[in-house]
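hey
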């Protein structure tokens, strides 16, 4: 539950992080866009301001042009006659371009069209024009009127000989600064570098603005309550060569754009409302803002849905991977993970315990799978009851359980295992179904330094197998003997490759005889392994190893091929060849191509299938699946006879005899050993007659004594195999045996 909650909160954290990220990225984007809009907006303002400046300058230029026109028409510049020239100008002056025009000689003696005479030699505009400059003065306030003086030099040849000047009402220029068709400007000013107002194009539509309260723009802003910082910025802008944007308080919060206009030291100031300035920006960015939030919400919601679904899927997968289907406990995968963690994070001694139920298959087969599962669940609960903190366990497979127990005190582990075994045994008795649950328990004390879970399980399993079937002991602890066996098995594994290469595997034949007349009836092929160092090895030593590593499949084929080769040799030599039975491991049934491979070998040596019998152990045949029956049918079709080996050692169900179509029943040595005992005799003779009634041939194996042989002969057991007649012998010896048979 805790894990689930953690997952949910981590999902929420992921969603929150992702949403914050989206909003963050959106914020950065908006900032970027704001910057871009700002630039665009400023460019736009600059562009429009330039238009106004152009307009103002054109007005001024026009005025100079007009003056120039008069200067060019002065009749005699070598000797200026002020009055007559001025009169002439007056007579040709049209419109109201200037309200006054005058002229001065180089000493500043001036006369104007009003007939007034005065000295202007001290006027700055006069001095500058005498220096060959075109001058427009700052705005001069004259009562209620404002005007500017325009002055230009009068030249004679290359020399300036006088000055032509004119006065023009400032208002006329102000009026002409028409910004009505401009997009953004509200109020326009032209000021000098001290902030003195030159042109005031404000309030074109607002007569109340007309009244000039102050003649300095800085004073005006001070009056309007601008901060010192703004004022400083402004004064700086007035003396700067570059254009500046300044946030000002001008009734409301506004933006002032201050730019030099290239006339005197004048600057133009365009003022617009903040809203207007931000108009484009606000509109588009508001939308972007909304979009970012909508996107973030949709994104977050989608992400949440995905995470919730993923979480659900993960839980499902985890459930499949981490939960055992039958018990609802940990799966083997989870067990391995947990063991890994325990090994890494603790310093305790541990033991890996492997346990299973003896003859579990029997419980399954007799009482059904559900009962089998009940037993597994019961054992799971019982193990769970004895678990301590820092320990884990799981149902591994079939009836097998693996436990990882603290083993600082091994006696405690043993005590718990004995208890578990006792409880399990009792449960079987208590149930109305009459069977006992006998546990086999293998304990492997873990070596932390070389810990590998698979090896640990293998060792615990090996330990367990060492006591399988020995009901006197419920547990075993991995020790030196087992270690030796493990090493020996490993040695055997390492020897396989060389054994194949050097053909160290030999086929031995153990003859079978007709019980009625003691004549040779055939043989069983048994493998022997000759190794230079180890001498002769017997199957019980290496077959389990081969069964484990799968090599048995190859060995069976090897044996089959050598038997076929021998039979071909014997047939060619004219022997009276009897059928040879070849052992076949259960694993062979999982080899999909084995029937084809075996028939191909028969073909290769041209051996008729009737010479071969395939021995399958009772356990193999006990699976009794449809697939197995189908395989046997195919083998029958290919001409092979099927022999059930070791009959009576497993959990033979008589039903199996009915369902699995075997041809020959091989009575296990354990039954033969019981001959002589009254009950044993009954069992053996009953099995023999039952087999015969089911149309099967009966072979008795492990016959060692005359009594056994005679008993079997008397109850009409078909064939006898055992030391009484012959031990397994080499093929050469068997050939001699065949000759005897033929005699
Ligand atoms: P099995 O197929 O039941 O073979 C009979 C075993 O009983 C043989 O042991 C044989 O030597 C032994 N035996 C025969 N008569 C007597 C007797 O009178 N007294 C006693 N005490 N034993 C007797 P072996 O050859 O050691 O083989 C043991 C098992 O190994 C075989 O049991 C069979 O299951 C397996 N095996 C042998 N060769 C092969 C093989 O080529 N392939 C496979 N898959 N298994 C093989
Ligand atoms: Mg056999
Ligand atoms: Mg046998």
């Amino acid at each position: 539950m805790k894990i689930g909650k953690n997952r949910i909160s981590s999902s929420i954290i992921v969603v929150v992080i992702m949403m914050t990220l989206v909003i963050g990225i959106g914020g950065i984007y908006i900032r970027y866009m704001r910057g871009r809009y700002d630039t665009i907006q400023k460019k736009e303002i600059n562009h429009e301001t330039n238009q106004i400046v152009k307009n103002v300058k054109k007005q001024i230029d026009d005025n100079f042009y007009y003056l120039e026109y008069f200067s060019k028409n002065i009749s005699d510049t070598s000797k200026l006659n002020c009055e007559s020239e001025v009169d002439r100008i007056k007579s040709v002056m049209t419109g109201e371009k200037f309200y006054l025009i005058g002229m001065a000689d180089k000493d500043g003696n001036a006369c104007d069209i009003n007939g007034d005479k005065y000295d202007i030699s001290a006027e700055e505009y006069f001095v500058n024009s005498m220096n060959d400059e075109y001058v427009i003065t700052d705005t001069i306030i004259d009562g209620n009127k404002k005007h500017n003086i325009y002055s230009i030099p009068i030249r004679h040849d290359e020399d300036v000989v006088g000055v032509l000047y004119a006065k023009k009402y400032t208002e006329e220029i102000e009026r002409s600064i028409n910004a009505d068709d401009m997009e953004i400007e509200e109020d326009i000013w032209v000021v000098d570098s001290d902030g003195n107002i030159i042109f005031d194009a404000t309030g074109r539509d607002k007569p109340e603005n007309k009244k000039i309260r102050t003649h300095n723009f800085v004073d005006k802003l001070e009056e309007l309550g601008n901060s010192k910082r703004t004022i400083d910025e402004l004064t700086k802008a007035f003396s700067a060569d570059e254009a500046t944007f300044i946030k000002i308080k001008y009734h409301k919060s506004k933006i002032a754009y201050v730019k030099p206009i290239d006339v005197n030291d004048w600057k133009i100031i365009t003022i617009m409302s903040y809203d207007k300035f931000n108009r484009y920006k606000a509109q588009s960015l508001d939308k972007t803002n909304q979009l970012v939030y909508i996107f973030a919400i949709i994104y977050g919601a989608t992400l949440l849905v995905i995470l919730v679904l993923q979480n659900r899927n993960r839980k499902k997968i985890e459930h499949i991977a981490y939960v055992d289907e039958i018990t609802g406990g940990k799966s083997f995968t989870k067990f391995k993970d947990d063991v890994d963690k325990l090994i890494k994070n603790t310093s305790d001694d541990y033991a890996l315990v492997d346990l299973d139920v003896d003859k579990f298959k029997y419980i399954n087969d007799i009482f059904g799978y559900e009962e089998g599962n009940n037993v597994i669940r019961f054992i799971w609960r019982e193990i769970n009851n004895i678990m301590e903190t820092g320990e884990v366990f799981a149902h591994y497979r079939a009836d097998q359980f693996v436990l990882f127990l603290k083993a600082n005190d091994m006696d405690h582990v043993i005590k718990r295992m004995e208890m578990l075994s006792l409880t399990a045994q009792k449960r079987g008795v208590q149930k109305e179904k009459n069977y006992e649950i006998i546990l086999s328990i293998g304990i492997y004390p873990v070596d932390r330094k070389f810990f590998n879970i698979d090896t640990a399980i293998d060792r615990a399993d090996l330990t367990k197998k060492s006591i399988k079937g020995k009901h006197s002991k419920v547990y075993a602890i991995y020790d030196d003997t087992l270690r030796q066996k493990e090493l020996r098995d490993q040695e055997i594994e390492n020897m396989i490759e060389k054994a194949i290469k050097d053909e160290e595997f030999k086929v031995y034949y153990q003859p079978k005889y007709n019980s009625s007349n003691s004549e040779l009836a055939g043989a069983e092929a048994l493998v022997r392994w000759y190794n230079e160092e180890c001498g002769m090895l017997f199957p019980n030593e290496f077959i389990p190893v081969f069964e484990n590593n799968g090599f048995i499949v190859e060995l069976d084929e090897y044996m089959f091929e050598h038997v076929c080769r021998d039979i071909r040799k014997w047939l060619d030599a004219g022997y009276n060849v009897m059928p040879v039975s070849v052992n076949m491991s259960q694993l062979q049934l999982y080899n999909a191509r084995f029937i084809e491979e075996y028939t191909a070998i028969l073909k290769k040596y041209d051996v008729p299938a009737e010479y071969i019998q395939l021995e399958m152990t009772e356990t193999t045949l006990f699976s009794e699946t449809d697939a197995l029956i189908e395989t046997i049918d195919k083998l029958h079709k290919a001409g092979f006879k099927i022999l059930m080996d070791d009959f009576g050692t497993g959990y033979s169900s008589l039903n199996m005899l009915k369902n699995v179509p075997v041809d020959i029943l091989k009575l296990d040595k354990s039954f033969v050993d019981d001959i002589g005992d009254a009950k044993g005799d009954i069992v053996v003779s009953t099995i023999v007659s039952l087999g015969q009634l089911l149309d099967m041939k009966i072979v008795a194996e492990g016959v060692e004594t005359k009594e056994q042989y005679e008993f079997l002969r008397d109850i009409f057991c078909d064939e006898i195999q055992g030391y009484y007649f012959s031990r397994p012998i080499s093929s050469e010896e068997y050939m001699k045996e065949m000759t005897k048979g033929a005699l």
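The chain has 24 helices and 27 strands. The mean pLDDT is 87.
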